[in-house]
C-alpha cells in the first residue's frame, strides 16, 4: 500500500502535473511536496546567494515560496492537505536522499527550458535510475 508520496516541485507546469497526478492517484496518501533550493543554475546565482546569506534558510524559503504556494493552491483544488519541505542542495541528490522515507516518488519529466536542462541535467532521469523506491514520471 502506498501511503507516503514525495513530490519534488519547482514552479514548472510539469511539476504541477506531477502533483495533480499524485493527488488524483493516491487520494488517501500523505503527500510531501519538496522544493530544493540552491541547486546548479547558470552562473550559480541562487546557490551563491544562499551560501553568502546571513540567514540561508530564509533565502532558501524565499526561493521556494512561489513553487510551494502553487502546490498549496493545487492541493486546495482537490480539497487535500499537503506537507511542504524546503531543502538546500543539488536537486537529484537531495530528492534521492529523501526518497527512502517514502513509499514512492512522483516527479515531473523535466522543468524549465533548454538552458535549464543543459546546466542542471536531467533530474528525473537520475532519480529514476537511483531511487530506492518506485518512481512515477509524469
UniProtKB/TrEMBL annotation:
Domain (UspA) ranges: 1-138
Gene3D superfamilies, sorted: HUPs
Signal sequence coordinates: none
TM stretches of this protein: none
Domain of life, source organism: Archaea
Sequence similarity: Belongs to the universal stress protein A family.
Protein name: Nucleotide-binding universal stress UspA family protein
Taxonomic source organism: Haloplanus aerogenes
Amino acid at each position: 500500500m502506498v501511503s507516503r508520496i514525495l513530490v519534488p516541485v519547482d514552479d514548472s507546469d510539469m511539476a504541477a502535473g506531477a502533483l495533480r497526478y499524485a493527488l488524483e492517484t493516491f487520494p488517501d496518501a500523505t503527500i510531501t511536496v519538496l522544493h530544493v533550493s540552491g541547486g546548479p543554475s547558470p552562473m550559480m546565482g541562487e546557490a551563491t546567494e544562499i551560501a553568502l546569506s546571513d540567514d540561508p534558510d530564509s533565502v532558501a524559503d524565499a526561493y521556494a515560496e512561489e513553487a510551494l504556494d502553487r502546490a498549496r493552491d493545487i492541493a486546495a483544488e482537490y480539497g487535500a492537505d499537503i506537507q511542504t519541505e524546503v531543502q538546500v542542495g543539488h536537486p537529484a541528490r537531495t530528492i534521492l536522499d529523501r526518497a527512502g522515507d517514502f513509499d514512492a516518488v512522483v516527479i515531473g519529466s523535466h522543468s524549465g527550458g533548454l538552458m535549464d536542462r543543459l546546466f542542471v541535467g536531467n533530474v528525473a532521469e537520475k532519480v529514476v535510475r537511483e531511487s530506492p523506491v518506485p518512481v512515477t514520471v509524469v
